[in-house]
Write a structure and sequence with these properties.
The complex is a heterodimer of chains A (97) and B (489). By secondary structure, chain A is mostly helical. Chain A contains 3 helices and 2 strands; from the N terminus they run H-H-H-E-E. In chain B, helix 9 packs across helix 11.
């Protein structure tokens, strides 16, 4: 069994991810994620010092298309799923005082 | 029973005008009414819309326009956008979401004449291996209702296995098509990365996700893959190049084809009946003329760890968009931060939260090099393993899953055990190659399907279809169905 990590602070990371966790979730996920991180530690067994990273299996770079004007979805369709809207805009809580 | 037929069988009947599309669609709707209260593959079916599409298809038939999928009801995983239909990814956070446009895969199905038919259950945001992570209840395995159908495309596999539709679409990020196909006893294809446009697919892990078909036999898989494949200017990761007619690969002849058995896949922990069925399938392939040799994929043991860094990192970025601002659920807050945090806390299920948190952690300052960058480097090693293997062999043969369908609840409290059930399917996505699962037998008591996985070179789908088809034609596994599914009502 890999050793659990001590520096993983579930509450801190959940806040970075903007996810509210109940105290029970903090407890449960903290322990489960420590277990998973322990398993992931096995990647340290490999020497990767001379290996290039792979971000994508298909090496494609600078994919561009012609900059043609095309129809886009109508304004009202884009707003159709909004939880709150007014005057053709998304409504959000006040950001600046 | 029209709902039991394959695409090619129905196409022959429809073009001869022996049956109408309306009858076909009605047969599927009737089967859903009869069996879906138990199987629970469908989240919703718009009956009126399906019958309206059927009437249009019947008119096209009368006009003599036999498109490849004309009048074929194809059910859709709840992760693909179908214009004016609900899309929730099995999640509460996309409460009441209605798609404003068609995914390219859906547009291609429509162009080929298919009936777009219902929304299929899935693990929330395609994160899971059992379909137990759906916010809308578990889908059950038609072979044993106490067992899972696999996941994340469990609804897609179960619906085809239960003859509730003729074929379906799913998505595969780490095995989410092949594993449920194996556990439900149907054919499932994970095309090469870039083969099928992802436009209109809700992203989980963008460098791994691919859309693919579930079908009742290999011929249908070849037909459907051809329709789905091809470059799309709306997805910059879709690949240029012609799409072959894969039916030409269904020759039945695999003499001299070289198959590799990776020694790392045939080790302890595998179910004995699964192991025996796969070995018998390998013998069968040999007797059909294939040359089998042992190969090595030395970094296999690191694939699951690599995957759960790469996939969660990408997911944490992709799922940032679900914040209660533009669509779906919103829990009000005093400021935007509180709104996001409360909405995401209430809207996401446990597994999605775990993976976003893990992905955020492996990308976070101070940990990026140790986790994410290292995983990307190991991904290179895994990819090189496959490229080296494909210098020696035309395809790789493995079990699809180390076990048959497990019982609901058996692994749901142990995420790591659940992750390890994808041990044979995950490398394929990391390497971006193609794979297929075909039925290769059953366990005895209870009777549960076993899947054989074939992995092919990038854009080597044709070779996979050729091997899978030759094998399938020499067996009758794909014709066996759960008794209660085929019973006349």
């Amino acid at each position: 069994m890999p050793t659990p990590r001590n520096d993983f602070d579930v509450k801190y990371v959940a806040n970075l991810a903007r996810i509210y966790l109940t105290p029970e979730e903090e407890q449960k996920f903290g322990s489960q994620l420590n277990h998973i991180l322990g398993y992931i530690e096995k990647l340290r067994e490999l020497d990767v010092s001379n290996v290039q990273p792979t971000a994508h299996a298909m090496p494609m770079v600078n994919v561009a298309r012609r900059d043609d004007v095309r129809p886009s979805i109508p304004h009202e369709d884009a707003l159709r799923n909004a939880p709150a809207k007014a005057n053709g805009l998304f409504l959000v809580p006040k950001i600046v005082e | 029973m029209l709902n039991q037929l394959t695409i090619s069988e129905l196409h022959a009947k429809l073009t001869k005008r022996a049956v109408s599309v309306r009858e076909v669609v009605q047969a599927c709707l009737d089967q859903i009414k009869r069996v879906d209260p138990q199987v629970r593959a469908f989240l919703s079916v718009d009956e009126k819309d399906a019958l309206a599409q059927a009437d249009i298809a019947d008119k096209a038939l009368a006009a003599g326009l036999p498109q490849p999928l004309l009048g074929i009801p194809i059910a859709i995983k709840d992760v693909l956008a179908v214009k004016n239909h609900p899309l929730q990814c099995g999640s509460r956070i996309l409460d009441k979401f209605v798609s404003p446009y068609d995914a390219t895969a859906i547009a291609k199905l429509r162009k080929a004449g298919a009936i777009i038919f219902g929304r299929l259950n899935m693990d929330e945001f395609a994160m899971g291996s059992s379909t137990e992570n759906s916010a809308f209840g578990h889908t059950r395995n038609p072979w044993d209702l106490e067992r899972v159908p696999g996941g994340s495309s469990g609804g897609s596999a179960a619906a085809v296995a239960a003859d509730e539709c003729i074929a379906s679409l799913g998505t595969d990020t780490g095995g989410s098509i092949r594993q449920p196909a194996a556990l439900c006893g149907v054919v499932g294809v994970k095309p090469t990365y870039g083969r099928v446009s992802r436009y209109g697919l809700v992203a989980f892990a963008s460098s791994l996700d691919q859309i693919g078909p579930f079908t009742k036999d290999v011929r249908d898989a070849a037909i459907l893959t051809r329709v789905l494949a091809g470059h799309d200017p709306l997805d910059s990761t879709s690949v240029q190049g012609p799409v072959p007619d894969y039916r030409a690969d269904l020759t039945g002849n695999i003499k001299g084809l070289r198959l590799g058995l990776p020694k790392e896949y045939f080790i302890g922990g595998m179910d004995k009946e699964v192991s025996a069925a796969v070995q018998a399938a390998v013998k069968q392939l040999q007797s059909l003329g294939a040359e089998v040799q042992e190969i090595s994929l030395p970094h296999t043991d690191y694939a699951v760890a690599t995957y759960y860094i790469v996939a969660t990192a990408e997911a944490s970025a992709n799922l940032a968009r679900f914040d209660g601002t533009r669509y779906g659920m919103r829990v009000e807050g005093a400021d935007p931060n509180e709104l996001y945090t409360k909405t995401r806390g209430a809207g996401f299920g446990a597994e999605v939260k775990r993976r976003i948190i893990l992905g955020t952690y492996v990308l976070s300052s101070g940990y990026y090099d140790a986790y994410y960058l290292r995983a990307q480097k190991v991904r290179t090693l895994i990819l090189q393993d496959f490229l080296k293997a494909f210098e020696k062999v035309d395809a790789i043969v493995t079990p699809t899953s180390p076990t048959p369908a497990f019982k609901a609840g058996e692994k749901s409290d142990d995420p790591l055990q659940m992750y390890l059930s994808d041990i044979f399917t995950i490398s394929c996505n990391l390497a971006g190659i193609c794979g297929i699962s075909v039925p290769c037998g059953f366990t005895t008591n209870p009777k549960l399907p076993i899947g054989l996985q074939l992995l092919g070179q990038p854009f080597g789908e044709g070779t996979l279809f050729r091997i899978a088809h030759a094998y399938e034609q020499s067996t009758d596994w794909h014709k066996q169905k759960p008794e209660w599914i085929t019973k006349q009502s």
